[in-house]
Specification:
- One of its GO terms (cellular component) is plasma membrane.
- The protein has two domains: 304 residues, Rhopdopsin 7-helix transmembrane proteins (Up-down Bundle), CATH 1.20.1070; 47 residues, no CATH class.
- The chain contains 14 helices and three strands.
- It has a three-stranded antiparallel β-sheet with strand order 1-2-3, covered by helices on one side.
- The protein is globular and about 65 Å long.
- The relative contact order is 0.11.
Length: 375
């Protein structure tokens, strides 16, 4: 009788254990499948973006695309880091090593910080281009763009490696954010920086939105040069605003949950996985946004998928030292330089007004090129 009871108890225990293991296996398989899909889409999409800018003259000559290129690289880094996170699912003892555990958070912090800095630089670039268009070429030069990008990456790396020397890792503790990253690191370093940059971007985009609304009203009733340029910059602003919105929706829940969990010791493995996968999925969205809203990126992606080099037409600066004696001669100059043999895929428009005559070359996805003819 006792033997029968013991046998029944062991059978029930085995059944319960099997169900628990099966549930864990199914959950792990689900998250791994999602991670593999996200990593594949992220690496493929951002590789196309990086390649499009590198091999397309039309894209690579635009200074604003330097920031887009940097953002694509940071997103690519996110995609490449996902397989490392999967190691913690596959090998349960992988997080028992301090270097393995700390490197997990260094990768996440580095990719996230670099994305935020790149988005801030993009917001600044669009702010100057739309609100102060005539100061753009003076303020945003190739050297300035490269300097900002370098500062952003160095700062991101400096913030990311802090947990290497300042952490709460202990042997036998599970490798999770709330167990490893110090509370003060999140509260007094990451949080203030995140909020500060986000507020600055919000202010910049609010100002841009106000200016873009004014552009839209003027465009409906006029075909002047400034309004044609404003239309192109407004479209560019829409793309960047969409990128910022997706980044906010994807990363903000993960950031809030991490900070809340670290402060209150709240644990929810399922909620953490959902928000983490939502956050890393953001890195696969930007190439889709480019292809959807930007014709040149879309065409370059098609060329790359077909294994063709996306030869684009580079932007051309129209510069002349000809000083016209009459106002009417300006139109002749512009008509001459706008012939297909002189400037390709461009639209040359001239505006006469004191103290000079201004000719503008409008290229798809390129900075507006100005040429002043002093009177």
């Amino acid at each position: 009788m006792e033997s029968s009871t013991t046998s029944d108890f062991n059978t029930d225990a085995f059944a319960n254990l099997t169900k628990a293991q099966l549930c864990t296996y199914c959950g792990t398989t689900l998250w791994m499948s999602i991670n593999i899909s996200t990593a594949s889409a992220t690496v493929l999409g951002n590789s196309l973006t990086v390649s499009a800018i590198l091999f397309s003259k039309k894209l690579s000559t635009v200074i604003a695309n330097y920031f887009v290129f940097s953002l694509a690289v940071s997103d690519l880094l996110v995609g490449l880091s996902i397989p490392y996170h999967m190691c913690f699912y596959i090998m349960t003892d992988f997080g028992n090593s301090e270097p393995n555990c700390l490197f997990r958070f260094v990768l996440t912090a580095f990719a996230c910080a670099s994305s935020i800095f790149n988005l801030f630089f993009i917001a600044t670039d669009r702010y100057i281009a739309i609100v102060h268009p005539f100061h753009y070429k003076r303020c945003i030069t190739k050297r300035t763009a490269l300097a900002l990008i370098t500062i952003g990456w160095i700062t991101s790396f400096s913030l990311a490696v802090v947990p290497v020397v300042w952490n709460d890792w202990r042997e036998g503790v599970k490798c999770e954010v709330i167990n490893v990253l110090p509370n003060n690191y999140l509260k007094f370093i990451i949080s203030p920086l995140f909020v500060l940059i986000w507020m600055m971007m919000f202010i910049l985009y609010s100002r841009i939105c106000k200016e873009a609304s004014g552009h839209a009203r003027r465009i409906r009733g006029s075909n002047s040069i400034q309004n044609i340029l404003a239309l192109k910059d407004t479209k560019s602003f829409q793309v960047m605003l969409l990128i910022l919105g997706c980044f906010t929706i994807c990363w903000l829940p993960y950031f809030v949950l991490t900070l809340y969990a670290r402060t209150t010791r709240y644990k929810s493995a399922t909620l953490y996985e959902v928000f983490f996968n939502l956050a890393v999925a953001n890195s696969s969205m930007n190439p889709v946004i480019y292809a959807w809203k930007n014709k040149t990126f879309r065409n370059s992606f098609v060329y790359l998928v077909k294994c063709h080099k996306p030869y684009g037409v580079s932007s051309t600066n129209f510069v002349t030292n000809h000083i016209p004696s009459k106002k009417n001669s300006v139109n002749g100059i512009c008509n001459n330089v706008s012939k297909p043999g002189n400037i390709l895929s461009s639209e040359i428009t001239c505006q006469i007004g004191p103290p000079h005559i201004q000719c503008i070359s409008i290229n798809e996805n390129s900075n507006n090129n100005y040429s002043d003819i002093r009177r």
